[in-house]
Specification:
- The protein has a single domain, classed as Ribosomal Protein S5, domain 2.
- The protein has 140 residues and is an alpha/beta fold.
- The chain is built from four helices and five strands, in the order αβαβββαβα.
- The chain is globular, with a radius of gyration of 16 Å.
- A hairpin with a 3-residue loop joins β2 and β3.
- α3 crosses α4.
- Strands 1-4-5-3-2 form a five-stranded mixed β-sheet, with helices on both faces.
Length: 140
């Protein structure tokens, strides 16, 4: 699912010590444990839009972790998978601009699978920018 995980990044840096840290791609680690999802639902802050709900919390890892969920009320498997693909792609495009050291859970709402990707991008940018989770322009 994720082609470039944190471990591979460390191995690449060890193999190529002269490559600056800023040049290597930043990739979030997927959240997989149910306890992590429940912790974010219970203790994390939430950002609500009519297309998506974002739960987030600071972690002590120095790297972002991310999870995507779509409830069964949204539709069948094809519709749910489309919603997850849209959210993953929007996150992937926005990821280099995100501050590091956070856990995120993106929850789809019923409208999301029927939107164009640009609308999902706009929702993500609006919510994350409003919560000051995006890096300022010109800063690294």
């Amino acid at each position: 699912m994720w082609s470039f995980c944190f471990v591979e990044k460390r191995l690449l840096r060890a193999a190529h010590p002269r490559i600056p840290k800023e040049v290597l791609p930043v990739q979030a680690i997927p959240l997989t444990r149910n306890t992590d999802f429940r912790r974010l639902y219970k203790r994390g802050r939430s950002l609500i839009d009519r297309n998506v709900v974002i739960y987030f919390s600071k972690n002590k890892l120095g790297v972002n972790r991310v999870g995507f969920t779509v409830g069964k009320k949204i539709g069948g498997a094809v519709v749910r998978n489309r919603a997850k693909r849209l959210m993953r792609e929007s996150f992937r495009l926005l990821e280099p601009r995100l501050r590091e050291g956070y856990d995120f859970v993106f929850v789809s709402r019923s409208r999301l699978p029927h939107l164009h990707r640009q609308a999902v991008d706009a929702s993500f940018a609006r919510l994350l920018g409003g919560a000051d989770l995006l890096k300022k322009e010109g800063s690294t």
